[in-house]
C-alpha cells in the first residue's frame, strides 16, 4: 500500500510538532524516520496510525483519504519499543489475541499462529509466558502479533531501543530478511543512524517538525541536502570559510578541495574524517596542531586544531601513521561540502 502525507501539521497547544510535512511512502517499501529527540518522528508515526489526528493536511492510503479514519479502521500493525505484550497470556494467546477479537474460528487461529511462530523463528515457544523470554524473543512475539491480522502497513516505534547493541544488530538483520519475505509497507522510527542506514530502503531525516531530506543511505551520507543532514548523519568537522565561486578561503588562505555545493560569500565547510589527509606543513596551506590521537569503532583518528579555538578537525589515520601530540601538520581536503552560513 502507498502512503501519501500531504501538508501535514500537528500542534500540541502552541507547540508545532509537525510543520506542513510532505512524504510519499511506496508500496512494499521499508522506510526509516530518523532525527533527534523532538524532531517529530513519533508524532508522524502516530498520525499515520490514527493515534493522533493532524491539525492540517491529509494522509492517503493508496487513493483513500484516511485522515479522519479511526485507528481500528486503518488495518495497521503497530510494534512499540517496550513490547506491550500481555504478561498473563502465553506466546500463543498474545499472537492470537487480534484474531480472536475478529472472531476467527479456532482452527483458523491455530493455523495462523503456527505460521507466524515459524516466520519469527519461535516455533515451540507457544506455551511460554513473556517473562520466560529474552528481550529479542519478546520483540519477535510483538511483531508476530502485529502481523497476525494481515495489516496493510506495519509501523514500528523504536522497536529495538530497549535491547543491547548485539541483539539489536541481530534483530535488524532478521527484520530486513523478514520484510523481504512478507513485503509489507513498513515505517519505523529510530534514533540509531547505523540502524536506519543499514536497514531501510530509504531514510527520511526529520528536524524541528520538517523533513530535511529523503533518500537512500548513499544519498543521505554522500549527498546531504542541508547542513543539518551533513552534521547529523555520520561524523563531520566544520570550519567557517569565505567562498568566491572558485576556491574556499580559510582565514584568508585559499585551499584546494573537490567541493560539492558551489556558493559565494561566507559559508560553513563540512568534511568527513575519511576525506582529510595529513601533509607536511607548507606556506599557504591550511595547517593545524595535533591535539589528540584516539581510537574509534572504525579505527584511529587524530584531532587537529586549525588555528581557531572553537574548530576541531577529525582525521582518519592509517594504522601505521605515527604523529606526536603538539606537532604541526598540513591538512589536505579530498572532498567537502559547503553550505551557506546562517545566523
Q: In words, what does this structure look like?
A:
With 343 residues, the chain is α+β, with helices and mostly antiparallel strands. It folds into two domains: 3-227, P-loop containing nucleotide triphosphate hydrolases (Rossmann fold, 3-Layer(aba) Sandwich); 235-340, OB fold (Dihydrolipoamide Acetyltransferase, E2P). It is built from eight helices and 21 strands. It has helices at 41-49, 91-101, 106-119, 135-147, 165-182, 193-199, 217-222, 227-232; strands at 3-12, 15-25, 30-34, 56-61, 64-65, 76-79, 153-157, 185-190, 202-207, 210-215, 237-244, 248-250, 253-254, 258-260, 264-271, 276-279, 286-296, 299-305, 313-317, 328-333, 335-340. It has a six-stranded mixed sheet with strand order 6-7-8-3-9-10, with helices on both faces. A six-stranded mixed sheet has the order 13-12-11-15-21-14. The chain has a five-stranded antiparallel sheet with strand order 16-20-17-18-19, with no helix packed on it. A hairpin with a 3-residue loop joins strand 11 and strand 12 (248-250).
Number of strands: 21
What level of helicity do the residues show? 10-25%
Q: Radius of gyration over alpha carbons?
A: 25 Å
Average pLDDT over all residues: 89
**Contiguous uncertain segments of 5+ residues:** none
Order of helices and strands: EEEHEEEHHHEHEHEEHHEEEEEEEEEEE
Give the tally of structural domains: 2
What is the CATH topology descriptor of the largest domain? Answer: Rossmann fold
Content of β-strand: 35-45%
Instruction: Describe the largest sheet.
Output: 6 strands, mixed
Number of helices: 8
Strand order of the largest sheet: 6-7-8-3-9-10
Task: Specify the CATH architecture of the largest domain.
Answer: 3-Layer(aba) Sandwich
Class of the largest domain in CATH? Alpha Beta
Distance between the termini: 42 Å
Shape: elongated
> Structural class of the helices, strands and pairings?
alpha+beta
CATH superfamily of the largest domain: P-loop containing nucleotide triphosphate hydrolases
Amino acid at each position: 500500500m502507498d502512503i501519501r502525507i500531504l501538508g501535514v501539521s500537528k500542534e500540541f497547544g502552541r507547540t508545532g510538532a509537525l510543520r506542513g510535512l510532505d512524504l510519499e511512502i511506496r508500496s512494499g517499501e521499508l522506510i526509516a524516520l530518523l532525527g533527534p529527540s523532538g524532531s517529530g518522528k513519533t508524532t508522524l508515526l502516530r498520525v499515520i496510525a490514527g493515534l493522533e489526528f493532524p491539525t492540517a493536511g491529509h494522509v492517503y492510503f493508496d487513493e483513500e483519504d484516511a485522515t479522519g479514519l479511526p485507528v481500528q479502521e486503518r488495518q495497521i500493525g503497530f510494534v512499540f519499543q517496550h513490547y506491550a505484550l500481555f504478561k498473563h497470556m502465553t506466546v500463543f494467546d498474545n499472537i492470537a489475541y487480534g484474531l480472536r477479537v475478529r472472531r476467527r474460528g479456532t482452527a483458523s487461529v491455530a493455523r495462523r499462529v503456527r505460521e507466524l511462530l515459524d516466520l519469527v523463528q519461535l516455533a515451540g515457544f507457544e506455551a511460554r509466558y513473556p517473562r520466560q523470554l529474552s528481550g529479542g524473543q519478546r520483540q519477535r512475539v510483538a511483531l508476530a502479533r502485529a502481523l497476525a491480522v494481515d495489516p496493510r502497513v506495519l509501523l514500528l516505534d523504536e522497536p529495538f531501543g530497549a535491547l543491547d547493541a548485539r541483539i539489536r544488530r541481530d534483530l535488524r538483520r532478521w527484520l530486513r530478511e523478514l520484510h523481504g519475505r512478507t513485503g509489507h509497507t513498513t515505517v519505523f522510527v529510530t534514533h540509531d543512524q547505523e540502524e536506519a542506514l543499514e536497514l531501510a530502503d530509504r531514510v527520511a531525516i526529520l528536524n524541528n517538525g520538517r523533513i530535511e531530506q529523503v533518500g537512500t543511505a548513499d544519498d543521505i551520507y554522500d549527498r546531504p541536502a542541508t547542513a543539518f543532514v551533513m552534521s547529523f548523519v555520520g561524523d563531520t568537522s566544520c570550519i567557517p570559510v569565505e567562498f568566491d565561486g572558485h576556491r574556499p578561503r580559510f582565514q584568508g588562505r585559499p585551499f584546494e578541495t573537490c567541493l560539492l555545493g558551489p556558493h559565494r560569500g561566507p559559508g560553513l565547510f563540512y568534511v568527513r574524517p575519511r576525506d582529510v589527509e595529513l601533509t607536511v606543513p607548507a606556506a599557504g596551506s591550511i595547517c593545524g596542531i595535533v591535539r589528540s590521537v584516539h581510537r574509534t569503532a572504525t579505527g584511529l583518528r587524530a584531532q587537529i586544531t586549525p588555528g581557531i579555538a572553537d574548530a576541531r578537525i577529525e582525521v582518519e589515520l592509517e594504522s601505521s601513521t605515527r604523529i606526536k601530540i603538539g606537532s604541526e601538520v598540513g591538512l589536505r581536503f579530498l572532498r567537502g561540502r559547503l553550505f551557506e552560513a546562517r545566523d
